[in-house]
Amino acid sequence: MILTGLAVGAVLGIVMQRGRFCVTGMLRDIFLQRSWRTIVALFIVISVHALGVAALTSAGVIAPKESAFAPLAVTVGGFVFGLGIILAGGCASGTWFRSAEGLIGSWIALVFYALSASAMQTGALNWLNVGMKSVDSGLTTLPATFGVSAWFFAVPLAVGTALAARHYLATEKKAARLDVPLWKRPLHLYTAGALVGLIGVIAWPLSAAAGRNSGLGITGPTGNVANFIVTGDVERVDWGVMLVLGLFIGAFAAARATGEFRLRVPDATTATRAVIGGSMMGVGAALAGGCTVGNGMVQTALFSYQGWVALLFIALGVGAGAKIWLKPAAAPVPAPTSAEDAVLDTTPLTPAFQVATGAVALKTAPRVTKAQPIAEGRYALDQMGAVCPFPLIETRDVLNSLETGEELVIDFDCTQGTETIPQWAAENGHDVTDFHATGDASWQITIRKG
């Protein structure tokens, strides 16, 4: 029966890869772009999941276990996990499917995520996990606290989410898309959210039939993968392990079929961040009792205190991490220009300065220093190898320095950028004049500043 986990994971991997479904990006958008549009996709997952779980529970098909709320572990763990996913460049499920796209930096993050999660479960850090979780509030879920059915919370949440989705769909700017066959086009984020929620519902009875009373989960199974590899304990190979392996297989198949797989080697900074971020992810998720899937999609759908508080503190960690680490690179300092080679600046000087010296100003530095000029009013920005969201961050930074009507040509190989960059351009009044693939998992987009 555990092989059903492999099948569910494969479908989940396909949907997440084709939908570019990463909760890190959704939370990040709140802080970097002041936009709540993408986070609605997560609430679609939770709403569909909550309605489905409530129906299955009411029918007696499943009996979800209520998680005790350990406030210290959940708040600290959630915040640490949020910081970690910013450094690692993706949440738990996002790290799995990006690994399947060929990002070696995600492989590094995944290894350290698995090792640290395993250490927290049964290894050298288990004392920390047990100690922090010993502070127990006695609370479990909102329905249990108020003595009402889960339907009391699930229906209003679903209605509110539907209204929010309707609003954003109605106001969504039409963005440029790659000219590819329909089957190669990415899923709309909201469609992917609905499918992930449905997969989450299906996971419950299949997992329960295999002796695992839980739904989707990433951290525990990832730690079990590391445990099995290190110890050879076959009891660690359960439905959840099959789920994450299936997720990788499905995402790889989807990326390979659509030309979005290519091995991409990170630079030293990205690799270092992956090590630190992956380690923080494992520790944080183990403390919090789950990641953006286990807590952010499953426990929230059960309306547990653990799930909603963890999601809040993950978001706060993402916000703090974004403020600290997600900044555009400093512009290179131009070499000094000699007086003989300097270009005369026609900007008038103040009369006082002219009278006193009779001098003219020298323009000793180019106006645009991050992008390379390739023609009059046209610049090139190389973002090959830059992990998300840096292609968008740098694009935004350079475009801000251009004049209206000037163009920026961006080369990038971040899969998420195929959605985020043109969408950002549309929402900010810029025109995409060209957008095409330049090879496997590599693209070029030209944006004219509006």
From TrEMBL:
<feature type="domain" description="UPF0033">
    <location>
        <begin position="381"/>
        <end position="405"/>
    </location>
</feature>
<feature type="transmembrane region" description="Helical">
    <location>
        <begin position="148"/>
        <end position="166"/>
    </location>
</feature>
<keyword id="KW-0472">Membrane</keyword>
<dbReference type="InterPro" id="IPR007272">
    <property type="entry name" value="Sulf_transp_TsuA/YedE"/>
</dbReference>
<feature type="transmembrane region" description="Helical">
    <location>
        <begin position="270"/>
        <end position="288"/>
    </location>
</feature>
<dbReference type="InterPro" id="IPR001455">
    <property type="entry name" value="TusA-like"/>
</dbReference>
<dbReference type="InterPro" id="IPR036868">
    <property type="entry name" value="TusA-like_sf"/>
</dbReference>
<keyword id="KW-0813">Transport</keyword>
<dbReference type="Pfam" id="PF01206">
    <property type="entry name" value="TusA"/>
</dbReference>
<keyword id="KW-0812">Transmembrane</keyword>
<dbReference type="GO" id="GO:0005886">
    <property type="term" value="C:plasma membrane"/>
</dbReference>
<feature type="transmembrane region" description="Helical">
    <location>
        <begin position="239"/>
        <end position="258"/>
    </location>
</feature>
<comment type="similarity">
    <text>Belongs to the TsuA/YedE (TC 9.B.102) family.</text>
</comment>
<feature type="transmembrane region" description="Helical">
    <location>
        <begin position="69"/>
        <end position="92"/>
    </location>
</feature>
<keyword id="KW-0997">Cell inner membrane</keyword>
<keyword id="KW-1003">Cell membrane</keyword>
<dbReference type="Pfam" id="PF04143">
    <property type="entry name" value="Sulf_transp"/>
</dbReference>
<feature type="transmembrane region" description="Helical">
    <location>
        <begin position="308"/>
        <end position="326"/>
    </location>
</feature>
<feature type="transmembrane region" description="Helical">
    <location>
        <begin position="104"/>
        <end position="128"/>
    </location>
</feature>
<feature type="transmembrane region" description="Helical">
    <location>
        <begin position="39"/>
        <end position="63"/>
    </location>
</feature>
<keyword id="KW-1133">Transmembrane helix</keyword>
<feature type="transmembrane region" description="Helical">
    <location>
        <begin position="187"/>
        <end position="206"/>
    </location>
</feature>
<feature type="transmembrane region" description="Helical">
    <location>
        <begin position="6"/>
        <end position="27"/>
    </location>
</feature>
<protein>
    <submittedName>
        <fullName>YeeE/YedE family protein</fullName>
    </submittedName>
</protein>
